[in-house]
Amino acid sequence: MQITKEQIKQDYLKRLTFTFAEGVSEASIDHKYLALGKLIKDYVTEGWAETNRAYTEGKVKQTYYFSMEFLIGKLLDTYLINLGIKDLCSEALAELGIDLDELAAMEPDAGLGNGGLGRLAACFMDSMASLSLPAHGCGIRFKHGLFKQKIVNGYQVEKLDDWLKTDFVWEVKKANRGININFGGNVYMRKVGNKLQPVYENCEVIRAVPYDVPIVGFHTKNVNTLRLWSAEIDESDINLSSLQRGDYLRYLEHKYSVEEISQVLYPDDSSESGRRLRLKQEYFFVSAGIQTIVNRFKKTGEPITELHNYIAIHINDTHPAVAVAELMRILLDQEGLEWDEAWRITVKTLAYTNHTIMAEALEKWPKDMFAKLLPRIYMIVEEINRRFCLEVSKKYYGDWNKINNMAIIQNGNIRMANLAIIGSHSINGVAWLHTEILKHRELKDFYEMYPERFNNKTNGITHRRWLIKANTDLADLLVDTIGDEWVENPLQIKKLMNFIDDKKVLERLGNIKYKRKAEVAAFVKKAYGIEISPDSIYDIQVKRLHAYKRQLLNIFHIMNLYNELKANPSKDIVPRTFFFGAKAAPAYYLAKQIIKLINCVADKVNNDPEINGKIKVVFLQNYGVTLAEKVIPSGDISEQISTASKEASGTGNMKFMMNGAITMATLDGANVEIDQAVGRDNIVVFGLTSEEVMDYYAHGGYNAYETFNNDPRLQLIISQLKNGFFGVGADEFNLILRNLFDTNDEFFVFKDFDSYVKAQEKVDELYKDKERWLKMSLTNIANSGIFSSDNTIKKYADEIWNIKPHKISE
Ligand code: 26Q
Fold this sequence. Notes:
By secondary structure, the chain is of the alpha/beta class. The protein has three domains: 1-58 and 75-108, no CATH class; 59-74 and 109-457, Rossmann fold (3-Layer(aba) Sandwich), CATH 3.40.50.2000; 532-793, Glycogen Phosphorylase B (Rossmann fold), CATH 3.40.50.2000. The structure holds ligand 26Q. Ligand 26Q binds next to helix 6. Residues 114-117, 120, 266, 268, 272-273, 278, 355-356, 363, 430, 459, 647-651, 669 line the site of ligand 26Q.
């Protein structure tokens, strides 16, 4: 973008006056922020309209990325960086006596996601725009994103996330682009000519209104769109005469039942599954999105039978899997296609990404509820299922097991993963190991039936947010050493390896890390009153709280270290600060007990003078995108310790690596690929392999009691959980104990404990050799380019969507 500092100053002052009738000296900080937001949006909008026009007129194939979640975080900085005007803008504002960072802090953190899956969608949006790919995001404009977390007396307390309380400056409401969505009622088929047509009776019609958010690419004029749907009632539709009859309360009831749909994001939690409102949300945005796609496509004048040559629809996990049936519905009922042709087009258009291997986390819906809420869609799902089962029984005559495993409808439930697989031409896992496990275990039958559909796309992260934005000093070091080619092509970061023996570069790397650690120390002091030292090892585990991610293993190691220091106060260890950041789903009681335990240990350890500050434990409250950007660059150790085979990929692991942390890893998810990229000398690996874990699950052979009984360290830890050691009741940690003992330690916390402790001792040894450590750190950064989401998205574009960049000319 060609603009001068003077121009920005002028434009900004104009904006402030025109919007708020204020000058710099009168305006409050939120007005200053909003004026800047509006100004930047103006800058963005120019390319936006042009991009939309170019995609339509160019008749190019486009992707629609359907995701229940987009964890986009703050956008101001991204816009500035991607427009290439961050420094200019910062200087312009400074000359007006305004601190850009202070304004940036005012922006709400759009938390429209739970964790990895939602953040991945956001990184993908950034990469698609930056690669000038014609692609759109489609999701829900939740009035309330994931809850805000507070810790009160060591317990998690959930607070409402009210991110829309102040204007969300970036969005544009498109009231005239609303779409009607049908729910419930009765549907029957009527013969019209020689075709069957559905007749809808008494259904509830809900209006979906789109709000568009611009997604600005880096060094390209392309501005893509993230379209978020909101459920609203059309006030002009309300029948005044019925209101006059006193139906005001009925009207209110209706209004709330409509608005409820986009009211709140469901937290990721298996106990939340099966909720009718969640299904309503899924169909709501899927139907709105697909109707829009077909309407737009028809305007091009191409026959509908060409749809798959112009449109790719991606379904991010099973949450939008009802897209399979919705597209069929439109092709059959609206476009009048025959089943076989409609099916051929549907399968060629859709692609599905699986993000989980945990069978209990796979979405299923009771078919009666489904049929009642989505009667026409249910008919179509039944027919897809009937035809599929026929196909299976032809292929595998008499093999009932196969039908049982693969049918969409089974035991009174609709299995959304099965629907997604059967209705898509591409099915991918999110890391090499994950895809292998899908192919050879979880989805073995499907793989056997459709081997050509399965492929791997290892996740990635946008280096623009997670390196350039989050760690400007490190980005500067890269530019000073290897030039700036890596900014466009992150694989070039590898050139940093040329400096592995350069003492000056290593020293500078150390200083950058130290500076970030000092900043985090200041933050921790201010936010929690805990004194920590930037000279200690920063050992960080930040991610959603889940039993399989094994925050418990981490805290057991800390308890053990504490016990050892108490027994032997002169024990020589490198001082360490352990950080946790994690939200637990509100009804996930085991997870909540683990949070309480972490906070109990923190209290004990941080306030024990005998420990002499050798270890500190910090629980970072309300972990989210913004906090991640603050703490990840400060990490020395990145804790990626899930039970092998359980973490589909992980993306936090990549963010830490890119910022020079050493990974403490089980061979799980993308850790396997990090290990390959950096070599075993530059990562610390421990624990059971996925083969071993799956073998235990399949054939037994592990006895948790035996492991426990043979390890006095574990016995001491468990007794401390029970005996009031933390000043809490004996029952306080009952779910933790039950999860360990009643499930035979299903996530192998006891089993991996010894190997984890040894690996942690190795970290101490490594850290003592400062130069060696810095070399490891540099090696991690240098090899992180392969995990840029630009690489990942290029592969989606080439191998799944078959779309090409379509660059808007300057
Ligand atoms: C489902 C039904 C009802 C309510 C909530 C949900 C729900 C919501 C979110 C289920 C799952 C999620 C999120 C899953 C997720 O984030 N998975 C992670 O995806 C990352 C990106 O691929 C991977 O790196 C992680 O390994 C995976 O855990």
